[in-house]
Write a structure and sequence with these properties.
Number of helices of chain B: 11
Structural class of chain B: mainly alpha
CATH topology of chain B: MetI-like fold
CATH class of chain B: Mainly Alpha
Order of helices and strands of chain B: HHHHHHHHHHH
CATH architecture of one domain in chain A: 3-Layer(aba) Sandwich
Radius of gyration of chain A: 18 Å
CATH superfamily of one domain in chain A: P-loop containing nucleotide triphosphate hydrolases
Strand order of the largest sheet of chain A: 7-8-9-3-10-11
Strand content of chain B: under 5%
Structural class of chain A: alpha/beta
Radius of gyration of chain B: 20 Å
Oligomer: heterodimer
Number of domains of chain B: 1
Shape of chain B: globular
Number of helices of chain A: 8
Chain lengths: 235, 221
């Protein structure tokens, strides 16, 4: 189940032009400075914003095709997505367990995710009663509960302190072993992109920029990425 | 002392508040979240009761609900009875007059909701209707309670519109405000005092509840 996306959208100060391909089970990280169009790209994937032209294919399913005369547009709720926002947007009126099962009726899957993410002890708490890191773990469980076909992560660790951030990276690495769908993560953190991404795509001013990484890191990025993953696996 | 008018006012306020919440909660949701053209025209129309004198508003309703009006004739055909000068007519009129008192505060409440909650609900497969019931309403309860109290209090003091539509039929349309007006006209000041005082205390308690709710919503205490 691979993701293919080629889109164009006119933004206030530049045009967003992306051509992405992410195979199943791989994590594609979109990296770039603030305001480069990363979040818009992931929101277009989620159907929360429309591109001006282009297409998004998820295996055999067409999520969006503005090239065809039919102008296909699948609304967000029918895309079968998991989406983790920058700051966990859990439903404040629901307990942790109800948040996770919000989009999923399968109690066994909810149980499995509670266990996998180490949040079983929090299941009766409400979002405001738990820490930021715990909320983000719950957000991962909530996103994965409906068994999505595509997982989108919008700077999921940026609002967390360094220790929690490291813990959650471990969690994501663990989840990657289990997940067999394409994953797209937006980040402006080089270390994070290197550690977690199977594929790293840099965006600047809405365009894919192959030199951006070289300009912004002293170490060859792909080598660094391999090194970090190697260290992680060895650990 | 006859407290029937006060009881009738309470009954009217209860019916109007309940009816307006049923209509106003989804209406405010559509006005805040549904992208549609011409929204400003609808919002201005719904706000008219705030600026029109109640007698003018009541006059238009009288034309509409009277024996020659569209609504009045439809009611006559359906039930065989005229609509005006009944409890139903004053309830309907008070509801139409009270729309902005429920829609405006609910719009403010909904607009304060984190938009990511609705996006999150959509990602998890919720339709707009489902999001309204599963996310918007449960997270707007203090705002809904505030709107309910405001509408209840406003309806308790409704006068002009009710006088135009319902007249003053004891036990049917003669609410507290109209009864007090008649008592003063008839120089029955002692009775007017008692009923006015009862209305004053009741209104104060209602507003006190509203302000407590508002403080709780603002400061989370």
């Amino acid at each position: 189940m691979a993701l293919k996306m080629r889109i164009h959208k006119k933004l206030a100060h530049f045009n967003l032009e992306l051509n992405l391909h992410c195979p199943a089970g791989e994590l594609l990280t979109l990296i770039g400075p603030s305001g480069s169009g990363k979040t818009t790209a992931i929101r277009i994937l989620a159907g929360l914003e429309k591109p001006d032209s282009g297409f998004i294919h998820l295996q055999d399913q067409i999520l969006c095709d503005f090239q065809s005369p039919k102008q296909i547009w699948v609304p967000t709720r029918k895309r079968s997505l998991g989406y983790v926002f920058q700051e966990a947007s859990l439903f404040p009126h629901l307990r942790v367990r109800d948040n996770i099962s919000f989009g999923c009726k399968d109690t066994q899957r909810v149980e499995m995710l509670l266990e996998l993410l180490g949040i079983r002890h929090l299941q009766r708490q409400r979002p405001h009663e738990i820490s930021g890191g715990e909320r983000q773990r719950v957000a991962f469980a909530q996103a994965l509960a409906p068994n999505p076909k595509l997982l989108l992560l919008d700077e999921p660790f940026s609002a967390l302190d360094i220790t929690t951030r490291k813990q959650l990276r471990e969690v994501l690495l663990l989840l990657k072993e289990e997940i067999t769908i394409p994953m797209v993560m937006v980040t402006h953190n080089l270390e994070e992109a290197a550690l977690l991404g199977d594929q790293v795509v840099a965006i600047e001013q809405g365009k894919m920029d192959t030199d951006w990484l070289a300009r912004n890191t002293s170490v060859d990025f792909q080598q660094k990425s391999t090194l970090c993953l190697g260290e992680k696996k060895a650990a | 002392m006859d407290y029937t008018p006060l009881i009738l006012s309470l009954k009217l306020a209860g019916v109007v508040t309940f009816g307006l919440l049923i209509i106003g909660a989804p209406l405010a949701y559509l006005l805040v979240f549904l992208p549609m053209r011409g929204k400003v025209f609808i919002e201005s129309l719904l706000g008219l009761p705030l600026v029109l004198p109640p007698t003018v508003f009541g006059f238009f309703l009288l034309i509409l609900m009277g024996p020659e009006g569209v609504v009045g004739r439809l009611h006559q055909v359906a039930t065989g009875r005229p609509l005006i000068f009944t409890f139903g007519s004053i309830a309907l009129a008070a509801m139409l007059h009270g729309i902005p008192y429920v829609v405006q505060p609910l719009k403010s409440t909904y607009a304060k909701l984190d938009p990511r909650l609705l996006e999150s609900a959509a990602v998890l497969g919720c339709s707009r209707t489902s999001s309204f019931f599963r996310v918007v309403l449960p997270n707007s309860l203090p705002g809904i309670a505030g709107a309910a109290i405001l509408t209840f209090a406003h309806t308790m003091g409704e006068f002009g519109v009710i006088l135009m539509i319902g007249g003053s039929i004891p036990g049917e349309t003669k609410v507290a405000s109209i009864a007090i007006y008649e008592m003063v006209e008839g120089m029955r000041y002692s009775e007017a005092w008692q009923l006015s005082l009862a209305l004053l205390v009741l209104s104060y308690v209602i507003l006190l509840g509203f302000n407590f709710l508002e403080r709780r919503q603002r400061y989370g205490t």
